[in-house]
Amino acid sequence: MDRALVVPGEELGTAEEYEASGYAYSNNYRVLSSAIGIAHFNRSLHVVHVAPLKHHYYPTFNDVVRCIVVSITSRAAIMRCFAVEKGERVAYLKYPVTGIVPSIFSGEHSIDEAVGIGDVVRGRVVSRKGPPFTVSISGFAFGVVSAMCPRCRGHMRRKGNHLHCPRCGISVRRKVSILYI
Fold first, then answer.
1. Domains and CATH numbers, the chain
2. pTM summary value
3. How confident is the model at residue 67 (pLDDT cuts 50, 70, 90)?
């Protein structure tokens, strides 16, 4: 199997020689690259596959996402998801997407006890279609990972399932992740 660095529009072969795969496409009996990447030529299967050098991440089913809560209603919390965790790395999205946490996925009695506006939340995508994506914060590793005080906007410290503000002394109950900063 041969490899080569390719740029968009570069001719990789003809449609009679290779079948296009990945970021390669066929146009007028020519196989062309559609991204900057590595072209893998499999001469025995007659397939050329282009793997891009940079990936554009987008949340899919069962991905772990990081979001900021922007609105809370009586039935759900609306969030802007800005990052996807891929293994040990965090890949930031080019454009934030909308996520919704219905109260049944909060793991608490009501959604306004689970999260607050401005909280950074770690959750799992449980919908197969989107946006808006349905996000669950049930589980020990999911929930609020960073929060600001609703009164003075200072960073809140964790004390069990409660968050305490060292500036103004207010204490609020949240669905706190074990990964709280």
1. 2-52 (2.40.50.100), 64-173 (2.40.50.140)
2. 0.69
3. very high
